[in-house]
Amino acid sequence: MTAVTDLITPELASQLDRLDLLARLLVEGFLTGLHRSPYHGFSAEFAEYRHYQPGEPATGIDWRVFARSDRAYQKVYAEETNLRCTLLMDCSASMRFTGDEKTRPTKLAYGRVLAACLAYLLLHQNDAVGLVAFDEEPLIRVPARSVRRQLFQVLAGLRNAPEGTGTRLGPVLHDVAERIPRRGLVVLVSDLMDDVDEVVSGLKHFRHRGHEILVFQVLDPQELTLDYPGEVEFTALENPDDRLRTEPAHVREGYQDRLATWRHELRRACRSQMVDLVELTTDRPVGQALGAYLMKRGRLN
């Protein structure tokens, strides 16, 4: 059964000034259902000690050693591998869509909360995390680090990233791929509303440079169904002058066929490049995405 705290409601998603508390609420609520603690990587097998660094969580300190030596040492477990992850957050205008603002957040709000949860989870597993927020070009960059205060840097980037305009996924992905100095995990949060060849070209660039890629495609349920009653005027978010008034029932079948073809091409292209594609809708619990991340993280150990 889905827990209430695993859902991203419009009210929760609007609390950008409290992303740290929101991420903690959602992540720790999700983790209570797991049998293995994420704070020990994916194994409880002890490996060694290291000096405790100020700002790190105190949960891993061996207090018996501290009592004997008056020095703080952190327990390190076998599978703490210092993964470096870069979160790519799509802030383009199409991400501002929601089919029902009373019950569902926009795709952008959902994506911001999801990225905040992933940052929280990464840092509590002693991984390094960075952020690039973008629309037609990178808007905010936060280099990947694993220090405790990094969470606040990433969350500040998510809060402060402006709501963007158009989409140019291919050029942005190529630009970011050239700037990440070390191999790691790249997590893209986007609706992928762009030409499939452009998207895949950018993803291939990451693969060429040795990165693992996890893509969360975030869509609104009504983008899939076009379930609107009566006559509706549609406005292109990335070009407000582009408008269309029509009866959705008259175009629904053709729309869904073209959408299905587009999604099939994305899935096939991602499989061919060994890119993990996770399809999400904004009415789904965040735990679905966190579970996909944990599976990917486990395969990298």
**Gyration radius, to the nearest Å?**
20 Å
The domain count comes to 2
Tally of contiguous helical segments: 10
Say what the CATH topology of the largest domain is.
Rossmann fold
Can you summarize the main beta sheet?
Answer: 6 strands, mixed
Overall shape: it is globular
CATH class of the largest domain: Alpha Beta
Mean pLDDT: 84
Strand content: 15-25%
- Architecture per CATH nomenclature, i.e. the level-2 architecture of the largest domain: 3-Layer(aba) Sandwich
Task: Please give a structural write-up.
With 301 residues, this protein is an alpha/beta fold. It has two domains: 4-34 and 80-299, von Willebrand factor, type A domain (Rossmann fold, 3-Layer(aba) Sandwich); 44-77, no CATH class. 40% of the residues lie in helices and 23% in strands. The chain has a six-stranded mixed β-sheet with strand order 6-5-4-7-8-11, with helices on both faces. Strands 2-3 form a two-stranded antiparallel sheet. Strands 9-10 form a two-stranded antiparallel sheet. The longest helix is centred in the C-terminal third of the chain and has 25 residues, at 248-272. The chain is globular and about 75 Å long.
